[in-house]
Design brief:
This protein has a domain of about 40 residues. Helices cover about 70% and strands about 0% of the residues. The chain contains three helices and no strands. Belongs to the Mediator complex subunit 29 family.
Length: about 120
Amino acid sequence: MAVASQNFAVSVAVDDMQKSVDTSSVPRFDKCLEHFFSLCDQLEVQLNLGHHQLSQALVSTQNTPFMRNVVLKENPNGAQLYGSYVNTVESQLHCVKEIHDLLSNCCKKLQEHQTTHPV
């Protein structure tokens, strides 16, 4: 905006014949606009990247088995107790079963769609 006002003031002075044409003292408006749009494009890319990262983080926390209700018991030497290990494995098996069921349902729906809507 400052460059535009400077250019406008120089143009008014030239139009009023108060000043000769001296464009070296005022930066070019088109270069400043190009720089501004370049920064806008960079900002858009960064915002899209941030949006995708946030979406990925939300999906990963939703679909990753995290044992919120299970308190991991540890030995004094830092090793996980067998009971906690069994709980972890059961949680992972439950998650794998859910994923398997989702993929199976998706395959069935695709097959139904292909039979009802042949290509």
